[in-house]
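Ticket #337: bound-state structure for ISE.
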Amino acid sequence: MSTILGIAVIGAGRMGADHIDRLNRRITGARVAAVVDVDLARAEAAVEGIEGAVALTSAEEALERPDVNAVLIATPGFLHEDILLKALKKDLPILCEKPLTPDAESSWRIVQAEVELGHPRIQVGFMRRFDAEYQQLGELVRSGALGELLMLHCAHRNPATPANFTNKMLINDSVVHEFDAIRFLTGEEITSVQVRLGKATKNAPEGQHDPQHVLIETESGVLADVEIYVNAKFGYQVSTQAAFEDGIVDIGGDTGPYLRSAGRWGGSITPGFEERFGAAYDVEVQAWVDAAAQGTLGGPSAWDGYATAACCEAGVEAQETGTKMTVKLEHKPGIYS
Ligand code: ISE
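RESOLUTION: The complex was predicted; output attached.
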């Protein structure tokens, strides 16, 4: 493998374009070698000004190129499995945006393909693990400095959703991040999920019930509650309060600059996830590139992608049945320990 990783970015939509910009301007040790999109014009626009990068419409063609030695997948989730399997066949390092795949069964197929390959190659794009405050909270939990972690209170608020953002997507697209973050913070698997639908906002698209209250339990009995509120209007906010035996810790609060002007005080709120987690995405992609050069992973694995897919499945069933659903997981293969 060359010292500079040649990356094929598959999908040049919102997240793909954000990663192309990041790879091109801030990440060291890697370059964008190819951009693939079904819309050639969009791929061409994405490679504009990037020396040596080609625009293509076929992922297979990109994977055949001699200057491509890693893959970043940022297409819609239903297209992931096919590309993942092809990239695994070539034993290439992969960064796959969440979800790994849209359901637990297909995610398990990916895990099995990696087991067959003999080593993990897929890092899943759960960027919150790279956010400085999430990392500090994780360290606090592991250190035991505040005693045992007992409960987590999470708020996940988006300004608005597109009209086609369904009830299921509140779980599969949004709460999927809390599933991973809770697993990351506690170091435990999630055992059950319950969803409560209370009073809803008039600002949600038709057919979508917003907000929802998700109750999560981990192996040791840590309880987490998530307010998922995706048409909250005021801005983008992701915050967590952790209750320990010997203290309370808040992360994701509003940060400065704190302004006093014209008889008012306050600050500004990030408009979307690109701004809120911009720094975390940079750290995530750099960690992936650095680890890929060593033949290892720099973050969450396909097992984490599979486990969160199983949580999402339980979450969607819980939404539909109104009852507490058990998360069912296969046995964790040795390559992930
Ligand atoms: C989106 O797909 C994301 O991944 C964001 O992090 C999340 O906040 C949002 O709700 C999702 O739709």
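RESOLUTION NOTES: The pocket of ISE is lined by residues 158, 173-174, 177, 230, 273 (CB under 6 Å).
TICKET STATUS: resolved
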